[in-house]
Amino acid sequence: MKGFVPTPRETVDTMVELLFRDRSPAPNNTVLDPGCGTGEFIDGVIRWCKRRRLVLPRITGVESDARHLPVLHAKYKGHRAVHIEHADFLTDRRTTYNFIVGNPPYVAITALSEGEKARYRACYATARGRFDLYLLFFEQALRSLAPGGQLVFITPEKYLYVETAGPLRDLLARYHLEQIRLVREDTFGELVTYPTITVLHNRPPGRTQLMRRDGSTVTVQLPAGRDSWLPLLEGAAPQRAAVVLGDLCLRISCGVATGADSVFVRLADSLDPAIRCFARPTIAGRQLTPATTDLPQRFMMLIPYDVHGRLLPLGRLGALRRYLMRDDVRQRLLARTCVKRKPWYAFHETPALREILRPKILCKDIGETPHFWVDRSGEIVPRHSVYYIVPREPGAIDVITRYLQSLSAHQWLVQNCQRASKGFLRLQSRVLQRLPLPDDVAQAAAGGRPERVFSFAVRTKKAINIESLPDSRPIDRCRCVSPAVYFGGDKAPWGMICLGVCGLDHRSWATASTLFSYISITRLYVFPATRSS
Ligand SMILES: C[S@@+](CC[C@H](N)C(=O)[O-])C[C@H]1O[C@@H](n2cnc3c(N)ncnc32)[C@H](O)[C@@H]1O
Fold it and tell me: pTM for this structure?
């Protein structure tokens, strides 16, 4: 049954209460429960109306799974106000409803057929990246909500912050999202989804109340656009940063996934000296604790790749080949499903050794609080449960690490990271990439050369978001230069930025940023304001 998870009665009643809080349904009003399962919300609406001795509004339950139909038909046989549609809610629908309430299916993209994925991508703005069906249900429900109508959904909280849900946030922010209520983790028993009730009105945007799991509340104005709402909901002021961690790093990524650590990761002490030349010290997340000062090197990873990440032919693996060909080892490797289209002794993911084997900063993928460790030697190969951050300038490693350990970085991470179970933080590379760096940290990390800071930004983003440059920077005018021509030289003092765009003052820079996609900026220089004309 695709995404069938019945909603407990207590939660249904809370949601129906929220649905009719502003106005009770009139008999000619319409109520929709999309993906109605066995009718938990229909029952909830009937209960609510019965308690108040109200005539039922016209209720429609849409369910695609035929197995629920006998239950539904038997239940609502005597209710003329209830209509059950055996249909796919995600196909083209024209009807609108005054009230929509439900628990959409949580179905990951991996459970969809190629045909379904293509169809949804063509019809839904929210079907982007690794989408989930509940995002599409939200979009379809918004299309089906009559002007002035109310919607109450229970879904995973992830839509508030994951990148995949950016298009949904963009849509939702066009309505009045009255309340976001983070409800108990165990609402659906074992199934931990961090459930969230969303209360929305089809009217122009207004302020939103967030009710947290600890009962505390905050009222905010949600921003337009796709950005994560998490920082705002966590009470952070919006931050504007010219430079983010990703600008100063060659790579921020999670460690190597072999797909068979029991084969490739061996105790250093018991390693056959003949295969030592293929072994590198490795570390897993569980070996990193706040008390860890010296990175332990008890384990070695056997790596059948060269430093460019090319898988070595078996014939060049010597003693490692003999080990991999051992019957038990070979069988274990062949049993992996993750490398079906690769040579049988390949890793699950090709290791980016050129970047990994550099001085780098390490952190656990999931932890109670963010902690960072430095691998100065650059020899350690992080396992999949460890993230690694490789600064472009090896000399910047201490400046960056000090900042990562600081209170402000800590607060930002707490406000921006997804939650794993027990409230632990999930440090994903996408989030780490966006960590804003204060100017002094960015400049120190760039070796005290501000023009490098900006060229990092350009190189990685193709265009600087001009709006995000700090107000304090003395930017007056942008001088006319072609991408290949620039003023001054390496020793020019800074104060003004010259870009490869013609004749724009700073007010026009937002326009300039769109031009950046058409030109390639090779160098960026910072000039004193007095040199502008
Ligand atoms: C999470 S369950 C919720 C069931 C019920 N509303 C409740 O809260 O107890 C989601 C339901 O949506 C149904 N469903 C999944 N995809 C659907 C689709 N495309 N159209 C209609 N129903 C769908 C599933 O069969 C399932 O019964």
Answer: 0.63
